[in-house]
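Worked example 3 (structure in, sequence out).
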């Protein structure tokens, strides 16, 4: 039965932040904390930021970043203002500030001063480049920090200068980082009673948005393809041919990369088959097997002109259908296809509607909660406060000051002793497990020799030599973990998995909704045997709703929420040889997640057993053909079997597993 209390219901936050970290308090408020926003007499600067409600000075920016907070007014540059909030600071569990280094110390509001009275305070400082180093006092804006963190250099089309996304990414990422760091510090305080000082660099927070790009300089000696010095070099799987990523459809645009791979396998064959059923495909094209067209083309089996005609056929098919029609086709046919939604499209999205995502706050439609917690539900969206609306709360802290006991405890990392079974793969799930492992948890990352984590096939590779144990992307997202080879398709493998879960405190998975349940590992089944268990599932479209089985990651995850459409300029068709039009990608590229072509590993999964977490694209041009297998089922094409040149080491496809450390 769900508790009425959200996770942070007894936590008090004093939010002294500027726009650099406003999002931190918003996120903590969603988790149930009482977040007191301390504003100057004229109000927080975020109240003056666009966009505004038409014809008014009401800031929608403020409405977003301040949702759920309480507002008090105090001029902390004066002695009277500091005295007014002193009781709040003496009681606060978390203090958030984002002034320039040294400013809070000059006011007597630094960590050392506050901790002398409140030893349990978690004090979070968010600054552009951190509290120390040659750039600590350098001026910065959100845009320059995105550039200094490497993100802008990866964005936009390769045939023009980089473009920013148009939203304050550095502030939002650093705000989220600050909130996450504060939670980890609270966990540590639970052991000792002591708080600590957290130095959050906005530049460093941006580095994590680069995904695989961070590994290229060290392991390849240069920047990722299409970035930096390589920016004007076309990224081509097929020499002389650029594969479109965004396609026009009947009512907008969709994204679909027509390459094979372990997820979204044989998409071109599927699209051509559907086009032929509508009379939109030439007969001579359909006599070919397009399930492994890249490998066949490289072997001389398919002429380039036929490839161009196949893509023109796919383009005609897309233009004959709406976004929702194509998305439904993608769900049914297991295609990595996603609509490029506008904000208006999002409001009308049937999946979000089915999940009752949108909420009304003060008569305005607002986004709902990002996650659903079964036992400790998050706070529902609440309005941003009026200036000084909750001034009376300061008096309650004046009469409730307390001193927390400080215990003597051995030094240990925050999650030491926590045991995690990590069945997640690719990006979103594994990076959560990495955070737990880096802070002391014992995390066992589960893979199968026949279905290794796709990130093992993703560039860059050590010494530019592909191999399952040479992928920097995989190593980076799975540091500090143990690895277990385990075949979940076998009864013996599932028996071992059940024992691993019984050992665990936390179980993570990122399969398509329903896959883990079919194995017997759904949350209700696990809770019946292990009431203490926490199960964390991440899936592209959620665990419920009509599109719950939609599989995807990376490129699909960032196209649908609307950020791509907000930056799409005119789609410029450039005539290529043979008549194929290249769709000019006037879009934002998110930090390297879709740098490469498709996967070099086979898709041996059953429908529904594909992953759907965030992650990156993977390399196909380093593969070789190893024949075809399987029969067409329900009109679906056969899938290619593609082998990686360097075979996996230490792989035993048995029920019992082999544990090893992830190394690069």
């Amino acid at each position: 039965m769900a508790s009425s209390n959200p996770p942070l219901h007894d936590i008090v936050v004093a939010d002294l932040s500027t726009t650099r970290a406003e999002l931190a308090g918003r996120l903590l408020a969603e988790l149930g904390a009482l977040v007191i926003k301390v504003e100057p007499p004229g109000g927080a600067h975020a109240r003056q930021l666009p966009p505004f409600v038409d014809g008014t000075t009401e800031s929608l920016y403020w409405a977003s970043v301040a949702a759920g907070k309480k507002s008090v007014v105090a001029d902390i540059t004066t002695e009277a203002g500091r005295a007014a909030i002193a009781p709040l600071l003496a009681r606060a569990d978390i203090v958030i500030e984002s002034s320039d280094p040294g400013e809070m110390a000059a006011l007597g509001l630094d960590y050392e001063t506050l901790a002398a009275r409140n030893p349990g305070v978690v004090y979070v400082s968010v600054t552009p480049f951190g509290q120390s180093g040659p750039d600590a006092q350098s001026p910065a804006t959100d845009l320059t920090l995105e550039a200094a963190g490497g993100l802008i250099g990866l964005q936009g089309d390769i045939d023009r200068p980089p473009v920013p996304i148009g939203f304050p990414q550095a502030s939002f990422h650093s705000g989220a980082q600050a909130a996450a760091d504060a939670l980890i510090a609270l966990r540590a305080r639970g052991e000792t009673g002591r708080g600590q000082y957290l130095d959050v660099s906005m530049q460093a927070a941006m580095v994590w948005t680069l995904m695989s790009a961070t590994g290229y300089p060290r392991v390849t000696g240069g920047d990722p393809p299409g970035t930096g010095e390589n920016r004007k070099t076309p990224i081509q799987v097929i020499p002389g041919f650029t594969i479109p990523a965004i396609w026009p459809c009947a009512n907008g645009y969709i994204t679909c990369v027509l390459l094979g791979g372990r997820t979204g396998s044989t998409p071109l064959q599927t699209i051509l088959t559907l086009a032929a059923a509508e009379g939109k495909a030439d007969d001579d094209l359909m006599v070919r097997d397009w399930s492994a067209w890249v490998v066949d083309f490289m072997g001389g089996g398919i002429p380039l002109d036929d490839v161009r005609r196949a893509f023109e056929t796919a383009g005609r098919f897309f233009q004959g259908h709406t976004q929702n029609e194509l998305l439904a086709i993608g769900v049914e046919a297991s295609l990595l296809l996603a609509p490029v939604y506008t904000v208006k499209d999002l409001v009308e999205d049937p999946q979000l509607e089915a999940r009752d995502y949108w909420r009304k706050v003060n008569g305005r439609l607002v986004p709902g909660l990002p996650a659903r917690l079964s036992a400790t539900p998050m706070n529902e969206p609440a309005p941003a406060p009026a200036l000084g609306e909750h001034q009376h709360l300061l008096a309650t802290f004046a009469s409730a000051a307390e001193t927390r006991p400080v215990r003597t405890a051995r030094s240990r990392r925050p999650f030491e002793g926590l045991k995690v079974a990590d069945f997640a793969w690719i990006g979103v799930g594994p990076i959560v497990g990495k955070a737990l492992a880096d802070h002391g948890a014992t995390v066992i990352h589960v893979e199968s020799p026949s279905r290794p984590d796709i990130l093992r096939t993703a560039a860059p590779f050590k010494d530019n030599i592909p191999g399952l144990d040479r992928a920097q992307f995989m190593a980076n997202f799975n540091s500090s973990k143990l690895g277990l080879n385990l075949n979940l398709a076998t009864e013996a493998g599932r028996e071992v998995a059940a024992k691993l879960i019984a050992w665990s405190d936390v179980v993570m998975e990122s399969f398509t909704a329903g896959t883990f349940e079919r194995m017997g590992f759904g949350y209700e089944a696990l809770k019946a045997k292990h009431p203490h268990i926490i199960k964390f599932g991440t899936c592209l479209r959620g665990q419920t709703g009509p599109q719950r089985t939609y599989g995807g990651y990376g490129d699909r995850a960032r196209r649908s929420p609307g950020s791509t459409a907000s930056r799409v300029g005119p789609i410029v068709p450039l005539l290529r040889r043979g008549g194929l039009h290249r769709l000019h990608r006037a879009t934002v590229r998110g930090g390297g997640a879709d740098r490469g072509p498709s996967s070099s590993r086979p898709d041996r999964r059953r429908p529904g057993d594909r992953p759907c977490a965030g992650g990156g694209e993977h390399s196909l041009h380093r593969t070789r053909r190893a024949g075809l297998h399987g029969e067409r089922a329900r009109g679906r094409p056969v899938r290619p079997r593609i082998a990686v040149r360097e075979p996996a080491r230490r792989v035993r496809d048995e029920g019992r597993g082999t544990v090893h450390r992830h190394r690069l």
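Notes: The mean pLDDT is 80. The longest helix spans residues 169-192.
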